[in-house]
Design brief:
Helices cover about 55% and strands about 10% of the residues. By secondary structure, the protein is an alpha/beta fold. It has a domain of about 140 residues: AF1437-like domain fold (Orthogonal Bundle), CATH 1.10.3870. It is elongated, with a radius of gyration of 21 Å.
């Protein structure tokens, strides 16, 4: 049995669930984008005790103020699209004796719903526990006027300096006086270092070391997870990643269809990590030739089901795979890879692609 761990939002589903839930409130998308940028700012400056993805705890006061419910989160989740090829990949992985896991910042109402839809067991899903309805009961009588006040400010165009100034004051000085800060602390988001902790829980559960794992991520919340597995000798796949994730993987895959990850899986089963990395290098070097004539791709570089899919869909409207070997890449190559991934990321994720 082999282990592979997927981030959810991006690699499995293009929807950013929290972003769409915030869209239920007036100008909620704009508010979320500002708070998401604040998340990036705090992460990049290395704010103590702050993890990338904690956006999902920072938006809790806004959800409570506007009376958003757990049912609303599930309703939005039900509309989420699944990335092309994902259900097939999950099914195929199980046939090949791989155990798939999800490690996601997403609220449990979304993550468990998506896990059910694609066939990953709930017990294999590590995500953010959110008892929003219970939290609402605990906020009875609390003063939400500061939330309304800061919303009115966030509607304006703000640079990074102003975002940090306004939200530092709001989250760390104003909210503690209202009791709402204590509410936020009850939501521990599975992002950044907490994703790494989840990896080690999975390692203990399965008896597999990180050097024997494959992880798949795409954003700043995955950077520590990708880096940890890479440093321990495993395979870190950046799938349609952004500039915050690409430096931390050893493999890049950009495509609108997830089934091309089976190229990496197939090579791994044939010869382990080095075989997978060699397959990526060969695809990167020979991509144009492989796409012109899939029948000529060596058997060790593509499973037959993926070859058949490629032959049947060469002229269809999807982004054919770009593989990149990321170990020790130059700054120039990194910029080129970021451009390709950004293009595919926008194609697959739409508006959610701009979030960190």
């Amino acid at each position: 049995m082999n282990v592979i761990c997927f981030d959810l939002e991006g690699p499995i589903s293009p929807q950013d669930n929290a972003y769409e839930v915030m869209g239920l409130i007036p100008r909620g998308y704009e508010i979320f984008e500002v708070i998401s940028r604040y998340d990036d700012i705090l992460t990049l400056e290395g704010r103590k005790n702050y993890e990338p993805g904690d956006t999902l705890s920072l938006i809790i006061p806004f959800l409570l103020y506007h009376e958003i419910t757990e049912r609303d989160i599930r309703r939005i989740s039900d509309k989420a699209r699944i990335v092309d090829g994902v259900p097939y990949v999950v099914s195929r992985l199980k046939e090949l004796d791989w155990e798939p896991y999800i490690i996601s910042t997403s609220y449990e109402q979304h993550a468990l719903n998506i896990a059910d839809r694609i066939g990953i067991p709930r017990e294999n899903t590590y995500c953010t526990s959110l008892k929003l309805d219970k939290l609402r009961e605990e906020t009875n009588g609390l003063d939400f006027s500061s939330v309304e006040d800061v919303e009115n400010i966030l509607y304006h165009s703000l640079d990074d300096r102003k975002i940090k100034e306004i939200l530092d004051r709001f989250f760390w000085k104003t909210l503690p006086k209202t009791g709402l800060r204590d509410i936020i602390r009850k939501v521990e988001v599975v992002g950044g270092g907490r994703k790494v902790s989840s990896l080690y829980k999975i390692s203990e559960k399965t008896g597999k070391s990180l050097s024997e794992m494959i992880v798949v991520g795409d954003s700043i919340t995955d950077s520590k997870m990708l880096s940890e597995v890479k440093s321990k000798g495993g395979i870190s796949v950046v799938f349609n990643g952004n500039r915050f994730s690409i430096p931390y993987g050893n493999v890049g895959l950009a495509s609108s269809d997830m089934r091309f990850i089976l190229v990496i899986i197939w090579a791994y089963m044939c010869g382990g990590k080095e075989s997978s990395l060699n397959a990526v290098r060969e695809w990167e070097k020979n991509r144009d030739e492989f796409l012109k004539n899939p029948d000529q791709i060596p058997e060790s570089l593509i499973p037959e089901d993926v070859r058949d899919f490629l032959k049947e869909n060469l002229d269809k409207n999807f982004v054919h795979p770009y593989f990149h070997y990321l170990n020790g890449i130059t700054k120039e190559k990194q910029e080129r890879v970021v451009r390709i991934h950004s293009m595919v990321r926008s194609f697959v994720r739409g508006e959610a692609a701009k979030l960190g």
